[in-house]
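dumping this here so i dont lose it
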């Protein structure tokens, strides 16, 4: 059953989505003139700004913006490096979830292939499977292009290092993201408004913004551990 959302929630959803897109656009424009030393971060910062909005824009200008003459020794505090590492993971999750969600919306058979109407009556649960698969694959690719050049590894070594670095990180992110989406969809939207939000609504992506922030929180301690033991690079 489709939800009937109040005007205030619809307006709030539009504002938060526009704000996220605007912050991402500011970062992209700035990166044209100040490209990141690590090219993959040119994707990470605007992708994470889509959900992190003003907070991630502020973090970009304080800790992420490329500055001429800044050497490798200019390392931020550990807490900031962990935040960057978590954001790196979150960028892959964000891109993967956007692609998978819209693909399943455009081609409902995708959800059926992953169990909709079979093991679950809720489409959202079935789509979480391709969400995770695509987020994981993109996250490993992102991590590969971070670790391989920094460590000077071969292709095979780089792939294995990326898998080690991102398996726990992406899993912990998606767990937080799924948990918050379930709370918002079933305990808020369905109870208060008579149904869940569909992918083609602003309310769905507003909920996804909040869920991504939850994913950041659940992945943060995991990334701290991974960086501490040397499986992920300090950024």
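and the seq i came up w/
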């Amino acid at each position: 059953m489709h939800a009937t959302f109040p005007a205030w929630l619809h307006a709030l959803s539009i504002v938060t989505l526009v704000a996220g897109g605007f912050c991402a656009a500011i970062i992209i424009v700035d990166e044209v003139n100040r490209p990141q030393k690590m090219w993959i971060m040119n994707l990470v910062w605007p992708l994470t700004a889509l959900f992190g909005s003003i907070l991630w824009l502020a973090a970009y200008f304080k800790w992420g913006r490329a500055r001429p003459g800044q050497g490798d020794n200019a390392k931020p505090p550990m807490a900031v490096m962990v935040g960057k590492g978590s954001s790196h993971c979150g960028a892959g999750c964000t891109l993967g979830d956007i692609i998978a969600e819209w693909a399943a919306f455009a081609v409902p058979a995708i959800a059926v292939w992953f169990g909709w109407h079979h093991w679950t009556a809720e489409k959202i649960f079935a789509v979480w499977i391709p969400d995770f698969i695509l987020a994981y694959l993109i996250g490993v690719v992102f991590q590969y292009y971070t670790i391989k050049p920094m460590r000077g590894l071969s292709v095979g070594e780089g792939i294995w290092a990326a898998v080690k670095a991102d398996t726990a990180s992406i899993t912990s992110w998606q767990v937080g993201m799924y948990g918050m989406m379930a709370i918002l969809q079933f305990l808020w939207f369905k109870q208060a408004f008579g149904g869940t939000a569909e992918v083609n609504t602003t309310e769905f992506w507003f909920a996804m913004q909040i869920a991504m922030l939850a994913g950041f929180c659940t992945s943060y301690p995991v990334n701290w551990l991974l960086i501490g033991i040397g499986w992920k690079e300090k950024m």
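Residues 75-228 form one domain.
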